[in-house]
Amino acid sequence: MELCYNMVINIALLALIALALTKIPWVDHILCQDSGQARLGQFVLGAIFGGFCIFSTCTGGVVQGAIPNTRVLGVLAGGLLCGPIVGITAGTIGAIHRFLFDPHGLTTFACAYSTFLEGIFAAAIYQILKKKNHTLRWSELLIITAIAEGVHMLNLLFFVKPFSMAVDIVKTLTVPMVIINSIGMLLFFSIFKDVYMRQMLQADNERLETLNNDLLEKARPKPKVGPFGLQAGDHTELVEADNIYYIEAIHKGAKVYCKNQAFYSNEPLIEWEKKLGSDDSNFVRIHKSYIANLTKGESLQPDANNGYALCMKDENHTIIPISRKVIHEIRDYYSM
């Protein structure tokens, strides 16, 4: 009964320490970082979970030369929540400390070895879960903890001599350690899992805010381009942007072509590019001497320079050369 009481108190203290740690901003931040992004942070986490192992060993009682403890909580929780680096680091720290804590103890090697194996076990389970994109259920967590403690008991039987002493120790420790540690694992795991849930909710809120901003931006009416006042003989004609087929650079100005009419402009091609250009514009400077309205394109044709040219829908089916540096943009526009 005293054994169970000590282990329950041990788990309660670990839970309080874990809860306090998750309230520290930089610990919260490291916990929620992806393992591939912050390798140093993973080793720091491994040291933190290894510290739980050390605490468990130091606060455990002594029963028949063995130290009943909750060391498995730190190792499994670290590995299952944070990945292989954390699990193996925590297991290694816990194993080394257990060995140095009582170098000549009856169960020292078996317990230290089991702690290290638990780190490997947690790392392997994490990789399997990640590959299958599976989230642990509470029943699976209980089974994993029970298996880890079962391996611990088998190591005691294998390494502790005399064998009769090992059998007595296993009979005494198996039921309380498996049951209490399995239940304690649910509590310990849930404390750190809450950190991930908070982070996921925050990330979802940020994504939702970004999406809303994008939708609002798209919903805003875009400023109308044109019409443009172009000289036609003795009068100025207003030409809508949609009626422009292409614009050609002419000396210091430009010539604006519509379906069956052309206008001269004193403004150079670069000024027309500014007027017509926008993120969703159909007007593209496809050549140093041409701006084309891609909605008025009829076909893409190979030219004599092993490139492409754009055939327009105007009355003359004008062929406009396409610069090699924009051919990919043009092909994407026409989904080629």
Summarize the structure.
The chain is of the alpha+beta class.
Description:
With 336 residues, the protein is an alpha+beta fold. The chain has two domains: 2-216, Orthogonal Bundle (Arp2/3 complex 21 kDa subunit ARPC3), CATH 1.10.1760; 228-333, OB fold (Dihydrolipoamide Acetyltransferase, E2P) (Beta Barrel), CATH 2.40.50.1020. It has helices at 2-22, 25-31, 39-59, 71-82, 84-101, 108-132, 138-159, 163-219, 269-276, 327-333, and strands spanning 228-232, 235-239, 246-250, 253-257, 262-265, 283-287, 290-293, 297-302, 308-312, 319-321. Strands 5-4-3-7-6 form a five-stranded antiparallel β-sheet, with helices on one face. A three-stranded antiparallel β-sheet has the order 8-9-10, with no helix packed on it. The protein has a two-stranded antiparallel sheet with strand order 1-2. A hairpin with a 6-residue loop joins strand 9 and strand 10 (319-321). The longest helix has 57 residues, at 163-219. The protein is rod-shaped.
**Number of discrete domains:** 2
CATH architecture of the largest domain: Orthogonal Bundle
Binned, the helix content reads: 55-70%
Shape: rod-shaped
What structural class do the secondary elements suggest? alpha+beta
Q: Biggest sheet, strands in spatial order?
A: 5-4-3-7-6
| Overall mean pLDDT | 82
**CATH topology descriptor of the largest domain:** Arp2/3 complex 21 kDa subunit ARPC3
Low-confidence stretches: none
Proportion of strand residues: 5-15%
Count of alpha and pi helical runs: 10
Number of strands: 10
Major beta-sheet overview: 5 strands, antiparallel
Distance between the termini: 76 Å
CATH class of the largest domain: Mainly Alpha
Radius of gyration: 36 Å
